[in-house]
Amino acid sequence: MDVASCRCRVANSISRFIHLVTCSGGSTSTMPSEKDYRNVVSLLKHLKPLLDEFTNIRLPWTEAVYEECEDLDAAVNEAREFLEKWSSKKSKIITVLRSKPVLLKIQMSSVKLSSHIFRQLCLQESQNLKIGQLSELMIEILRSQEDSQNLLQIVDSLSLISSPDIVNESIAIEKERQLVEESKRDDEDDLSQTSLAADLMARIQDHVVKLDGFKARNGVPFPSYFRCPLSLELMADPVIVASGQTYERSAIQKWLDHGLSRCPKTGMLLSHRNLIPNFTVRALITNWCEERKVTLSEIQPFASKGSAVIINEENGKLDSSSYAHSRSESLSSVVSSIDLVAVAEAESRFSGKPENNAAAAAAAPPSIFDSTSKRMTAGGSGNQNATRSLLLPSESGCNELTSASHVEDLVKKSLNGDSSEMQTAAVGEIRSLAKYNMENRVIIGESGAIPPLISLLRSDSEQVQEHAVTALLNLSINEKIKSRIAESNAVEPLIHVLRTGNSRARENAAAALFSISLLEEYRIKIGRSGAVKALVDLLQFGSVRGKKDAATALFNLSIHHENKARIVQSGAVKPLVGFLDPGTEMVDKAVALLANLSAIPEGCSAVAREGGIPLLVEIVEIGTPRGKENAAAILLQLCFNSPKYCQTILVEGAVPPLVALSQSGTTRAKEKAQQLLSHFRRQRENGGGRGK
Asked: If we measure between CA atoms, which residue out of 559, 592, 551 comes closest to residue 575?
């Protein structure tokens, strides 16, 4: 059974018949069986969504379904041909007599097909009913160390997606545990369930923080060690409880108001219920907020799922999606919004860093979180040049304001250190200083550090090379320093890292090239430098993060017309078409880049040659709004390029999803879908076209 071909045929036949009857206007108004035809159209309109659902959930086609689809396709085409040949000069009586058996065939085939499909859908639903599945998932999560997908399913199923939800669930679990303890029940099931619930809640809290995080209204992410262990929010009024742990006042007060007597984090019995203000932590948070122009009252918990919303500290613009929309046709209506998540925090995507670890608060030095600490010195408000000494977890100096002399000393050590360890440590410190602080980036950039960092890109030490390229990436956020890096001939050394570095170094080299390519004149220079082939290699063979960085850099380079052919000739289309599979994490990035490349004939040929057309049709049907838009744009370019491609697109069943897109897509998606449908109509009116 050729199921795909059958599905395409019957869908296209139904769409053509519905379009013919509904758009014929006056031509059917005088036809004796006009009402019958419209009733059949109504029947088919109800059948089509059922058939689409059956196809979308990929149920196996039985012989009966296949045969009924074939019969329906034949009946619909027979009725369509009869209608197309009818004219007012023909006998009305004979028309009625001949229409009846044709329309009855459609009616009977539709009823039989609906019955078969409905039976299979019901059977599938009944098989999917797995009682106790959520409970099994919970147990499986606790057995495994890493089970992010199941954790996400639990979070969604139980709606534990906001701070109040998490606090309330934590309180409910503790109340149940306290009730079991006070009643001295020996029921092993009760004890086991409360213990399991507490363990699972701890895993959920860690997972939710890593997955979604929190954001302020202007999108600045905050360090994990400023987050309340109970509410997971940035603490505005931190207080210390009897156990020595620090919490947000409103969260721990709610906990205590429910009569709970143990510390949420340590489980210690609280000797008293007093809440002592933690002025040290409050000062740290206030200082951090002032540096980033964040008002504590603006903090809103939980960013949208799947969206790391980061503010670009240089221009105040939000970067909240992988690609942002633009009306410029020259950009294929898609412009990268620095998928490197604002580059300033480029390093934060690597696991194990305190900013990524919700458990870092527990590992923080007592000097930050206990009531006895007074270790925080800061220059008075009148002394702006005073050096701050704020002890932060794991990277105690990474956010301190540095000095030109200190940077110059680090540069000397990085070039002429007494040992490789000293050299690595010096470059690593420059990397850390450039990571968070805007002022540090300026000081480093103006202290002569850029040429030495560029020279270290050719270091034989992988660690030194990684530190150097990441430092340059962090520095490139500042527009003036970015220009200085580009003018210092950094492109060739960055390409060297792309080819020879370790995984992280290659990722950050691609990110740095992307950052430099935002300077229009360097978009051309980078394209001519040989970077394209190295980026395509990373796109094809790199890590997942590396592939994403390479795609982002190539997208920006492809904006310049001259680079499109280079990218195609370097073999980028093959891996990009592979990324169109819905199972990958790269669909929208790949289709956006292909939309640019399809603007040239070589790009269209490569997309078709690598088997991209069926996948593009599928994206038009089930992709994201932006993915559908770009997929439709590529299909339109393919149709303009060759009648052969147009025919292939039709065979793949593109008409139904394009009709839907023309009615419910984005503005540009509707426009592209309508242009495609019009092109198909012209092709049909002209008798089709022969392939080249």
From this structure: 551
Half-sphere exposure of 400 (CA within 13 A, CB side): 21
Residues of the chain with CATH 1.20.1260: 3-153
Q: Read off the tokens for 104.
A: 């009855």
pLDDT tens digits, residue range 652-673?
Answer: 999 999 999 988 888 888 889 9
Say what the pLDDT of residue 571 is: 94
Q: Tokens standing for 486? A: 């580009």
Q: In angstroms, rounded to a whole number, what is the distance separating the alpha carbons of residues 38 and 339?
A: 51
Q: C-alpha distances in angstroms, 627 versus 325, 330, 405, 661?
A: 11, 17, 50, 12
The model's pLDDT over 411-438, given as tens digits with 9 standing for 90+, comes to 888 887 667 788 888 888 889 888 877 8
3-153: which CATH topology? Ferritin (1.20.1260)
Helical ranges in 559-666 per DSSP H: 561-569, 573-578, 587-597, 601-609, 612-622, 625-641, 643-651, 655-664
What does the buried/exposed string (b/e) look like for 305-335 if buried means 16 or more CB atoms within 10 Å of the residue's CB?
A: eeebbbbbbbeeebbbbbbebeeeeebbbbe
Tell me the whole-structure pTM to 2 decimals: 0.47
Q: Which fold would CATH assign to domain 221-298?
A: Herpes Virus-1 (3.30.40)
Contacts of 440 (CB under 8 A, 6+ apart): 401, 402, 433, 434
Q: With a cut of 60, say whether residue 319 has pLDDT above it.
A: no
- CATH architecture under which domain 571-687 falls: Alpha Horseshoe (1.25)
Nearest to 472 by CA among 319, 344, 350: 344
In sequence order, what are the residues at sequence separation of 6 or more whose Cβ sits closer than 8 angstroms to the Cβ of residue 39?
Answer: none
Matching residue, tokens 């704020």: 390
| 474-531 confidence digits (pLDDT tens) | 898 888 888 899 999 999 999 999 999 999 999 999 999 998 988 888 888 898 888 9
β-strand 310-311 against 318-319: which pairing, if any? antiparallel
> Contact 554/532 with Cβ under 8 angstroms?
yes
Please, are residues 589 and 548 in contact by the beta-carbon 8 Å criterion? yes
* pLDDT tens-digit readout, 220-229: 777 777 888 8
- Is residue 239 helix, strand or coil? strand
679 near 645, Cβ under 8 Å?
no
The alpha carbon of 466 is separated from its chain's Cα centroid by a whole number of angstroms, namely: 26
Instruction: Please list the residue range(s) of the chain that carry CATH number 3.30.40.10.
Output: 221-298
How far apart are the C-alpha atoms of 156 and 159, rounded to whole Å? 5
| Other Cβ atoms within 10 Å of 534 Cβ, number | 24
Which regions of the chain carry the CATH code 1.25.10.10? 571-687
| One-letter amino acid for residue 573 of the chain | V
244 band by pLDDT with thresholds 50, 70 and 90: confident
Give me 71's structure tokens.
């019969």
Task: Specify the range with the lowest mean pLDDT, choosing from 145-154, 185-194, 224-233, 270-279.
Answer: 185-194
